[in-house]
Amino acid sequence: MIREPQAVYPTAPAERSATRLSKKKQTQLKSRMAELRKNCRRNFEAAQADRHRLRTRENSEELADVTDWLDHLAGPNFPAEGATVHFSDDVWKSASRRGEVFDDISG
Fold it and tell me: Is 32 among the domain residues?
């Protein structure tokens, strides 16, 4: 049975009876709500199945194949020995970092 919402302000009995549903309307509402719940549950389960499918082994094998292909495109691996990289101060203290390059544009 569907409950009526509680009114904040007292209403006349004629107003309250206008908002009540007949037995037929209540039955229709129940069946529509049940169908809506079923559809929502089905959509949720389908979304869950999609998420689970993304985690399967087949996809991880495909990911490994794509990763190997990208590594192949990147060229040979760097040697495993340690290396030191030195940057010039021109890189870190460049005119573009100071904003001097854009002074010509804003003119």
Answer: yes
Q: 28 lies in which domain range? A: 23-72
On average, the pLDDT of the chain sits at 76
Does 53 score more than 70 pLDDT? Answer: no
**Taking the C-alpha atoms of 92, 93, 94 and 96 in order, what is their torsion angle to the nearest 10 degrees?**
90
What pLDDT score was predicted for residue 55? 62
Secondary structure (3-state) at 73: helix
What b-and-e string marks burial along 63-100, b requiring 16 or more CB atoms within 10 Å of the CB? eeeeeeeeeeeeeeeeeeeeeeeeeeeeeeeeeeeeee
Q: Say how many domains are in the chain.
A: 1
Q: Which pLDDT score is estimated for 36?
A: 94
The secondary structure of residue 70, as a DSSP letter, is H
